[in-house]
Amino acid sequence: MTVVKGRTSPDQQKAYQDGAYRHGYTVRVSIPRIDLWIAAFLGLRRQDSAVGGVADPSSLGMSPVVAFLCSCALIVAALAANASRLGESWAVPTFYCAIAAIFLPAAARIVHPGASRLERLALIVIVTSAFFVVRVIRAPVAFIDHDEFLHWATVNDILGAGRLFLPNPLLPVSPLYPGLELITAALVNLSGLSVFAAGLIVLAAARIMLMLALFLLFEKITDSARIASIACLIYMGSSTFLLFDVHYSYESLAIPMLAAVLLASESRRVELGGTAGWPMVVATMLLIVALAVTHHLTSYFCTALLCGTAVMECLKQGASAQQRRQAILLASIAVIAPVAWSKIVGNPTGGYILPVLEGGIDEVAQLVSSSTTTRKLFVSDTGVLAPAWQRNLTMAGVALICLGLLTGFLRSLVFNGQHRNASILWPPTRWRLWRSSLLQILVLVTLAYPVSIIFRLTRSGWEIGNRIGSLSFLGVAIVVAVAVAAFWHGTSRGWLRATALAAAATTVLIAGVISSEGPRILVPAGYEVSADSSSIEPMGISAARWTSQWLGGDQHFAADRINRLLLSTYGRQKVSTTLESGQDTSMAITAADLGPMERKLLIDSGIGFVMVDLRMTTGLPGVGVYFDGGAQDRNHMVPLQASSLLKFNSERDVDRTFDNGFMVIFDVGRLGKARQPAVPRGRTGEKVQSLGRIEGDLQ
């Protein structure tokens, strides 16, 4: 081995070694240390978390081209949705391809460092608008998803009675958090639009507000428009983004309001001057109160974020006394507002949320202890296995998110440090030196993402995991975006790497949609039993409207999960649910005989009419339950028996009021008391013919 001795400069030593290489001599070679590779991968050093600049902020760049491509993809999506109604097998894969075609070109341009700030913002708005049109294409003329009917009923009550807080048996908590319904009702009264049209306008405005607020929020806490735009892309990969959070539901308005609260709070931090931040503090307080009367869970999550931010502000070195006072004030308001509103309206969320949470936690505990079977992955409640491409894409999307979190978690903390040339992780004296306290909290929020995955493996906890996942994506988005901008892409000007990363982001997006909607993303050609949007069809709607025309409104009905939605909205009837009364009337409907217990159940519940849908005898429920989801309802191994549903035919004090061949309405108002059968009001509809039955069998 050749060793250079004597007093030589580093340049002379390097020249000597270069010469030795050329002549084949053996020299001492420095082998990279593995710990430095690990540090670079995880982003422990400041130089590994550097983010390059962007182009001129005044150029629209390629956004017009992306807008044209999105319009072409929307045409394909519309054709696929129509093909699904005709029963074509290629409709669902084509619809997913159209979603990917909307997202991929914009993602490639946003990941590339050459895009300007204005172009990035324009691309985010274009993709967001296109995705909202996808929601309209899926349901263009009416609400079809389960949660939408719950809030539609509340709007009808507000419009009909002209006051708030009327009981809603479908979701008793809905009238107590009427933010979304109040805005919709006001728009209906001002414009004369239908509830559906007014709801779409409110949802579209809320969706644009959400993405603009997120872009500005991420930009403020990272000082980078590139990271902010990439974070918006990653956020679209949440399982609830594409469709669930644009359902007509209070969460669809609450999430944008949460983003606005965080943006106003962070804007307060960066203001300077003697009265710095106080106008934004007032604006933030008003938004917190508005959020508290819109959605309970989102309001509680906002409380956790603002309280965590206040703690970080108190721990942060260099924070001014005024900033700390403002952070503590906002955290206090965030605690007081939802608690006070809950007390005012009667503390409804405990009985509504706790049973679901307890059931989910119990199943997770059993899953960890391996004492019970879990929910089968990619298998519906009817036993149908999802296609292989959906299973593979879903697993790939989760793996990509985990990889992004692995390379972005510590890197985001380092990136948030005040010292540009050293890590905040070492020495310990720099642990309390960071720029944005909110960014610190959002990084910690990503720890909830694995928890959401565990909950989604259980039957009772699936909905909990879905909600946790959507909120945790506020942190996931920013952490993965830092990893993409600082590690996976960096300052490379080539399109190959940007396109590969855009394809990965597209995989995350499609995986999120599949995990939320799966094969039921489009309305099928035929009716499916108790499958929410796949069970909303003209026969059930016309039957519900018939009740309003011939029986009058506000009759008390017992019905299955789907028909009670239609009766409450299209028929304007009262429906029996266990959420409202605690009585499970499904036991009287599905029992083999109408015995004393079944009669007492109907009488005690005040039921006047029972609607039975004989299509429930043709298959198992698509969502796992026919009615309210009680223990008996979840244990059905075979479809219901027609003889059980039609047992009312043999009862003397029960009248068959309506029969369209599959759906039958029985007047049970004379059970337990003597009264005449209900007399229809003046005829306002067409004749309804009874198709007749022999001994309870379908003809």
From TrEMBL:
- Species lineage, top-down? Bacteria, Pseudomonadati, Pseudomonadota, Alphaproteobacteria, Hyphomicrobiales
Task: Please report the name of this protein according to its UniProt entry.
Answer: Transmembrane protein
The segments labelled Disordered in the record are: 676-699
Q: Say if the entry is tagged with keyword Phosphoprotein.
A: no
Transmembrane segment boundaries: 65-83, 90-108, 120-137, 186-218, 225-242, 327-345, 393-416, 437-456, 468-488, 495-514
Keyword Membrane part of the UniProt annotation: yes
Protein keywords: Membrane, Transmembrane, Transmembrane helix
